[in-house]
UniProtKB/TrEMBL annotation:
Its EC number is 5.4.2.10. The keyword Transferase does not apply. One of its GO terms (molecular function) is phosphoglucosamine mutase activity. It holds the Pfam family PGM_PMM_IV. The gene is glmM. This is Phosphoglucosamine mutase. Residues 3-41 form the Alpha-D-phosphohexomutase C-terminal domain. Keywords: Isomerase. It comes from the Bacteria.
Length: 48
């Protein structure tokens, strides 16, 4: 999913707990949700 240059994505690993935070802003909620799911799947696959 692409935000078409009208949004932003921040992925941040916590330094104090086993957590990865994914923050996404965009104009179309459906695209934001889809992108969040896609990123979460990659993180879960790669980090377990």
């Amino acid at each position: 999913a692409s935000l078409g240059g009208k949004g932003r994505v921040l992925v941040r690993v916590s330094g104090t707990e086993p957590v990865v935070r994914v923050m996404i802003e965009g104009e179309e909620p459906a695209k934001v949700e889809r992108l969040a799911r896609d990123i979460a799947l990659v993180i879960e696959k790669e980090l377990g």
